[in-house]
Amino acid sequence: MRDWPIGGQGGSGFGAGEPQDGAPGDGSRRSTGRPVEIVGPHLRITGRLELGSFQRVTDLVNSTSGLFRLTQASVLLRDGQPSNLAVGDLWVSPAEVTVIAEMEPLRDRRAKDIVFVSKSPTPLAIVTPGHTVTGSIFTPPEASLEVFLQSAEPPFLPMTGLRVRSLIDRHVEAEYPFALLNRRHIIAASPLPETPQTTSTSLFDRLR
Questions:
Q1: Do 6 and 98 fall into the same domain?
Q2: Percent with pLDDT over 90 in the chain
Q3: Residue 139's pLDDT is what?
Q4: Which residues neighbour 1 within 8 Å (Cβ) at sequence distance 6 or greater?
Q5: What is the distance between the alpha carbons of residues 86 and 202, in angstroms, rounded to a whole number?
Q6: b/e for 95-124, b at 16 or more Cβ within 10 A?
Q7: With 90 as the cut, is the pLDDT of residue 119 above it?
Q8: Domain count of the fold of the chain
Q9: Which range marks the domain in which residue 47 is found?
Q10: Does residue 136 share a domain with residue 186?
């Protein structure tokens, strides 16, 4: 079981449980771009996501309805290898994005006096338009998984231990310690045992 701050997004990065102290207009801290990898049904891009006045990728992505900006953006090949296309600045529509993965740990800046609520990991297997995904979401112990999955908020679900495999080519896969999954891209979802690594391979095979 893990503790999360009340009012925060559960599972928000390697510094999971960090308070949401980077709301727009809060100039007490200076934000910088965060290295991310973005995966969609027909794209794979790396770059730095500009946070503006936000402190975390989770806060920015779940508070922005329009395009978000990547700097130092490069298009990757399907298998994650670099391509010859480096585009510099790039504006991305979140509607076309399945996964936003953070590529380096986030330093924990939790306030000492913040109130936390406990959340427990729930391993899931998920099918999206272009991929199968396994990983864990974090919900309060008394929360209904059905209600949580059918909710519209937050638009991007924080998840840990993601394994993403292409539906087009089963040999193309990636693993991310922490990433955000676009809730609107979920076609099907199923709970997994607490040790998904022992069942995920056969599950992926059955889904194909």
A1: yes
A2: 39
A3: 81
A4: 118, 119, 120, 141
A5: 37
A6: eebbbbbbeeebeeebeeebeeeebebbbb
A7: no
A8: 2
A9: 2-102
A10: yes
- Whats the size of the chain, residue-wise? 208
d(CA 116, CA 110) in angstroms, rounded, equals 10
- Pair (94, 170) in one structural domain: no
175: in domain: yes
CB 101 within 8 A of CB 129: no
Q: CA-CA distances (angstroms) from residue 149 to 65, 74, 142, 144, 164?
A: 20, 32, 14, 9, 19
- Cβ(166)–Cβ(131) below 8 Å: yes
pLDDT tens, 149-201?
Answer: 888 888 999 999 999 999 988 889 999 999 999 999 999 999 987 654 544 44
User: C-alpha dihedral over 128, 185, 83, 87, to 10 degrees?
Assistant: 180
Name the amino acid, one letter, at 51: L
Query: pLDDT value at position 195?
Result: 57
DSSP-derived secondary structure for 145-173: HHHHHH---SSEEEEEEEEEEESS-TT-E
